[in-house]
Design brief:
- By secondary structure, the chain is of the alpha/beta class.
- The chain contains 13 helices and 11 strands.
- The chain has one domain: Alpha-Beta Barrel (TIM Barrel), CATH 3.20.20.70.
- It binds iron/sulfur cluster.
- Iron/sulfur cluster binds next to loops.
Amino acid sequence: MFNPSQRARMLRKKLIRDNKYLLAKIGGAGQDPGERKVLTDYFRYKDYIDKPGWVKASEKKKWSDKFLGLRKNGFKRTEFQNPTYSAAYNLKRSLAEFSKVFTMQVAGCNYSCNYCFVPRELNSADKRYGRFFSAKEIVEEFLRIKKDSKEAMNVIRISGGECMIIPEIVIDLYNEMMKKSEDSYLWIDTNLSAIEIMKEQKNELEKVLSQKNVGIVGCFKGTVKEDFSLITGAKEKFYKNQFEAAKFLIDLGADFYAYVPAYVYDKKIAKEKLESFLFELRKISKNLPLRLEILKVEDFPAAKINFELSEKEGRAISKTNQEYVFDLWYNKLLLKYYSEEALKKFCCEIEL
Ligand code: SF4
């Protein structure tokens, strides 16, 4: 098992060059659903709301609990936290303006998650699998593609890889976005690992993350330290950094959301593990569990390769059925701690 903080420092050196940032070459890399939605080699789009009937539904209906909760198959109807709802809610604009999300991936990650759908080489900060872009070039690409897009496209999303290894990309990109396209919204994905690096950029990050047109989602890996280590390949002692990072971001004034993959090892004690995780989240903020979404892990092509590679490393994916984890969280645990009224709200409507 490795030290993810050390890895982050090593990757950092390779991910920034002359105020440019290394983005992964997604096109042709075998990622899915990214592959189907590639815009150019380095940019793709994501439409978070794929529920049938959503596009044509009235705004009122889109904000009703018709689009919340779980489907009959046990999985969620829509992603409960997502930039579409967060942007529309915070900026008081229509949801349709934010459903198509322009996405890029930083070409390095300091974890090696066993379920990751990004091919490992794309997360290795190797310039053979990416290209350096300045913030100005990224925003130019966004505006060029937006101009030709049939659907409204007003969200820029930085995904990964792990962007907080190089928080400069977040700061620079936000400032550039505000110069050229100030009615846009910035959405950031982080794995909550690079707490020391984030602290070094505290003041600049605060200026960006406290803005209304910025949202950030932190992906927790595992619900206890043992599972964290199996999932990420990192040493168990780094499990707690995620909670420190989440608190740090919330204290900066960020509109913060959370994920955790539906992987809980050992079905017999899954409930205890999830409940202890819920307690840890509540220590940060009582309502944080209501802003968390359980992430369904899909067997996309690159993910299957990562499943096999991790198994050889002794970190096979959890065998606990994912629907079971969804059921425990949404139908049992949340009900135990929160009112029905709170559970009918979208994540963005929950106050931290
Ligand atoms: S799932 Fe996310 S955090 Fe994990 S290795 Fe992949 S990009 Fe990194």
